[in-house]
Design goal:
The protein is about 65% helix and about 5% strand. α2 packs across α3 and α2 packs across α5. It is globular.
């Protein structure tokens, strides 16, 4: 019985993981001087685009556990980056919002992350970028479906 081998030079999954690893490393490099992690940045970006998300929503959006997000939110709340009500307005979920300080932190982090994305896409034409976006969305949808 012969085993089918994967050619790492042409394996879409392997190359996607390699690109994701390089992107993560580059993002960590630009966020570290700002005192942020990728999860910290992701949380702020999610809250800026969708104010009022719960801990569970933020955890899903940042690809971490609810427990990890809860620890992060407690730190961000203590540091004045986010605010949450003392009691849930409905159910048990505490809606989280960025403070003015949080918005300023996000502004610096977003600029740093955009510079990484520009560098990552610098060798691609507009058509190649559009095709890559389409391909990545299609891959994710196929795996979820």
């Amino acid at each position: 019985m012969t085993q089918e081998r994967i050619d790492l030079d042409t394996s879409m999954g392997y190359l996607l993981k390699e690109a994701a690893s390089a992107l993560r490393s580059a993002m960590e490099d630009v966020l570290r001087p700002l005192g942020m992690t990728i999860t910290h940045y992701s949380c702020l970006e999610l809250l800026a685009q969708r104010p009022g998300l719960s801990n569970s929503d933020l955890a899903r959006g940042a690809f971490v556990t609810r427990q990890s997000m809860n620890v992060l939110l407690q730190t961000l709340e203590r540091d004045g980056i986010v605010e949450r009500p003392d009691a849930a307005p409905v159910g048990k979920a505490l809606p989280t919002r960025l403070t003015a300080r949080g918005l300023r932190s996000l502004e610096a982090a977003s600029a740093a992350v955009r510079s990484v994305e520009r560098r990552m896409l610098s060798g691609m034409s507009d058509a190649e970028r559009a095709a890559a976006l389409h391909a990545l969305r299609s891959m994710a949808a196929s795996l979820r479906g």
